[in-house]
What does this fold into?
Amino acid sequence: MTCSKGRPLLRWATGASACVLVLLGAGLPVGPGPAWAQEAASAVQDVTLTDVTLPLGDAVLKAARVTVSGTRLSKDELLALLRPGPEPVASRLARLDAASLVIPDLRIEGGSKGVRETVTYGNVVAKDVRAGRIAELTSTGAVLTVEGERKGAGSYGPLQATDLDLAALARLYAEPGDGKGALQRIYGTFAVADIAFVDAKGMAVKFARIQGRDLSARPVPGTWAGALAALTAPGLAEAPPATRAKLSANAADLAEAVTLGGFEATGLSVQHTTGPTPLNLAIDRIQVGGSDASLEGITLASNGLDAKAARLSLNGFSIAPTIAALRKLAATPDATDEDLRRLTPVIGTLALSDLSLDLSGDPGAKAQDPVVKTEPLHVGLRAATFNFGPPRDGVPTAGRIDLAGLTLPASAVAGVPGLGSLGLYGYRDLDLTVVADTAWDAAAKELKLGEISISGKDMGTVRVNGMLGGIGPEVFDPDAGVSGFAMLSATAKALDLTIENTGLFERFIAAQSKVLSLKPEELKQEYVTASLYGVPAILGNSAGAKAIGAAMGQFVAKPGTLSLSVRPRNGTGIGMLEFSASPTPAAVLDRLTIDAKAN
It folds into this structure.
């Protein structure tokens, strides 16, 4: 829905809908409280207005009949509030007072650049309208049509809003500000049911219900209407640098100018049944609140892919770095790839549970092609967690990945180094756990490898821990030349390797013994001998080399756990260039303290 074909829906959900609420406020009802009723009982009256028209920006509000009840305003005064003139709409709406306001049919017409949009609301009722603020606003539904260069049609079901400030909303929509004023509360709650939209290309979007609470915002330069129209206009990719710079400023203004207490959408369905790439996406529930968001009950089917996930959540998300990068882009119209990389937000923690992927056939092959065929593939993931620290130049400075219950057939990794032979050892299906944990210490200029590991059910675990020194901020530079050169000055300060066997080694010996026509015990003895004598000889017969060979021999004889700890003798680390320039392995080992053991 981010492509140009989806923009009518986006404009409907932003510009048109915001305009609707403002325009609805031009005449909506509200029920008076007891104190007000006693004070003004003798002054109130009912007024009926006909053929009401109110221009607002690029939209026009039209109502054939408006009934205003319990108001102290005369008919002429009410008409003056709606009549176009030099006084801002927000100021006029701030004088609107009534016990209730009823509009049987409210029509909003708008659009720009070859596109015409019309939204018609039915049975609009506003209760207890005081100084332009509505206690409760309802409508039985609405119909939307989009005509011109982009075509589509849609509808709302029942709509309700509480504590809706029409004057504040009109001020945001139509009056420019500096983007630095105080936040103004727009509504307490908002809910709409049975939302549907279909464009001319067959893309259909539906929501069972959307609701939100505590929306506040402040005016921005160029008005919200202008900023939204600019950001949803077609052809942005081809726009000149000056235009793109202005759009960056608009996006930053809007991002900083709004807060939302909470948002929830249920029953999302996106379907596209025409064209070469059909799509069927459904999400049971979407929730957003503060820096947290979640999706529940996700299903996706498209071109040979069937995917399901129970839940996808995001916690600790922040767009502060993105806003700062947008401000910088606004000052430098000729954006580079490095500038765009700095748009990366603080991701926080991304978690996924119960993922299931089924691939049938070749997704890239045409349905009528009988030659291109692949075996169906099923991949499962019980749980996944991705933790990311604050980014520097678009790159997170810390991160941890945990994948638990990653299941897939062994045939799927046939070409992967280190895993490709698992099928030969009798594994049909793999059940893996993967962990990767890294963190950068800016003060010490160190990159800590907290844990890099992979474990397999009935296989074992390979775990690596380590420390790299000389990792300064240049490593995160967007310029690949600068970051690459900085990595050359890095030093290896610590390395720990642990191998735990829980079945893989025995299967390896059994498979190799058949290939070599040896008994398993005979093959193990050959490997023991090679470890005790061959490995030290290859590594230079130093004390460290002999320790490694002895530990490997013990591990082969009784496969359990093999551990290797390596530290530089100088305590400061060995540079990457020194490793590559060493003439023999012995020249490197002589500079290391090695502790190797097996048990």
